[in-house]
Amino acid sequence: MGIDRRRIVISDPPHKLEKRVRILFFSAAVLSVVVTVGIVAVLLVDSVVFFKNVSLWDFMMGSEWAPTIKPYRYGVLPILSGTVTFTLTTALIALPVGLLTAVFLAEYAPPRLRAVLKPALEILAGIPTVVYGYFALVYVTPFLRNFFPDISTFNVLSASIVVAIMIIPTISSISEDAIRAVPDKLRYGAYGLGMTRFQTIRTVVLPSALSGITSSFILGISRVIGETMAVTIAAGRMPRIVNLLNLSDTFLKPIQTMTSAMVEVGLSDVSGDSPAYMSLYAVGFLLFLFTLALNLISQKIKKKFREKYQ
Amino acid sequence: MTADKIKNALDKPAWWHSSLVEKGKDKVFIAFAFVAALWGIAALAGLLVYVFSDSLGWVDWQFITSRPSRFAEKAGVWPVLLGSFYLILLVGIMVLPLGVFAAIYLEEYARDGKLKRFIETNIANLAGVPSIVYGLLGLGLFVGLFGLPIGCLLVASMTLMLRVLPIVIVSSQEAIRSVPDSQRFAALGMGMTRWQMISSVVLPEAFPGILTGLILALANAMGETAPLIMVGVAHSIFSPPRGLLSAFGALPLQIFAWSDYPQNEFQHGVVPAAIVVLLTTLILLNGTAVYLRHRFSVKKR
């Protein structure tokens, strides 16, 4: 309390060892910055080589993606469209369920149930995505065929369902923190007015926790964009521009996302200096920029909600 | 904003607060929230039941000790299981000192300022970088720049080490932060230097917490597939790794390769069996972490 232990000055003359360990610890901490610089450098260098062969315009505006099959095409729009479709579908399932889960844990669940539910939910996030991909392909799609007879073997919907299950803990745990941070006096005020719990949650708690909830949503969406194995296994490898207005075309047919396109190039036997190999880095760079932007926004918003009640 | 909301509610007529309709809505909402909280767990439980029942008769000693094969009856996971084991062993050896040192710097040396905030923001962002991008980093840096062999054990473990480093740093920071300051002051008051205080008081006290984080990170690394594909790890391999620079296979990657086989014996036999082996290993790892965390928190009280 009151004393910052890092400011304590030790009066003994500092040993050489003291200085050395300090430098060692500092370098370890700086390593994380070096890793970030490394990621940007690696992605940038090979992307630049790629854009010497393929113009930025063709990459960003091209409507065909065929990096390994002649005639080669490096238009990113089909796989971008696949990523957007997959992310939207997953978000549509995961965001409401994650939020409801958070509300249940924070406002309704008795402590003993909560003590069981929270770790149980954490298990969802700990299962490898390759396993979720298999679940989607072998169990979820045949199950969905009962309701949608014309669903393809590879489709968006089943991949989205399993990835939604996977990211529910991400969304619910941050949202729950935000809901718990809402001071109880606001709730008592609402109850004192004779509100039901649902009215209190709807009119007082959720609006007050909005920034934390938004932050969890953005973080969850960022996870979905970067998710790889489940979409590679279950959503197919068909790069195409999805018509979001035609629902059966959107949900029930195969797509290819940016990540699964990267896996496909990674699995093929392209040589280290071909444009196809370099296209990996261009797509990777785009993916990195998207997730970095979303993560930064999410952190900014999260910091805001932390400061609000201090 | 919140005050406005309460004022809004005050302006509503009295029946709005106490109507039966609202009470009904309250009940419906509880039901919805309860179902939502259980939905993911129930779905997963269902899927696990399927996978375990499909794996019955497939997971046996022969399966664990055999090599992968195109024939379902002969297929096994021994080389890839060993590969995954060496992989997380190497990741653990590399990530533990780096993660703990970084955490010590941030918690015991760095003052609250721009530098510390910058490093911490950076670590938080690294944790959010998709794992496939780490695969590209490993490919570009270790294979492209340093010229290490593609798909070798060393490249894969270094790549995954960078991937899980943020997890280890953050959990070690939490463990170090939970050591009470009174113990530090007592140590310093006895005339210890800062490093003596850290090594003889803080680290032993924080060790179980650090270990918990490490095990969770290793469980994470063991399930990774996408970065391994990017650094060129073999999908199917018939012998266990022979050295740091030798080719190897990993269990999740073998699952991915097998999930492409259309035969029913693979879809509903070999793959579930391999998944059961993987999940059992992960449950053992996570269980150890939970046990350590529990013992740690009991001791603290």
Summarize the structure.
Chain A has 310 residues and is an all-alpha fold. Helix content of chain A is 73%, strand content 1%. In chain A, strands 1-2 form a two-stranded antiparallel ribbon.
How would you describe this protein?
Chain A: This is Phosphate transport system permease protein. Chain A: Residues 80-298 form the ABC transmembrane type-1 domain. Chain A: InterPro entries: MetI-like, MetI-like_sf, Phosphate_PstC. Chain A: Its main location: membrane. The complex is a heterodimer of chains A (310) and B (301). Chain A is mainly α and 310 residues long. Chain A contains 13 helices and two strands, in the order ααββααααααααααα. Chain A has helices at 16-53, 56-61, 77-108, 111-126, 129-144, 156-181, 184-192, 197-208, 210-226, 229-234, 247-251, 258-267, 275-308; strands spanning 65-66, 73-74. Chain A has a two-stranded antiparallel sheet. Chain A starts with 15 loop residues before the first helix and ends with a helix. The mean pLDDT of chain A is 89. Chain B is built from 13 helices and no strands. The model of chain B has no long low-confidence stretch (mean pLDDT 88). The chains are: A mainly alpha (310), B mainly alpha (301). Chains A and B meet through α1, α3, α4, α5 and α6 of A and α1, α2, α3, α5 and α6 of B.
What features would you highlight for this structure?
heterodimer, A: 310 residues, mainly alpha, 2 strands, B: 301 residues, 13 helices, 77% helix, globular
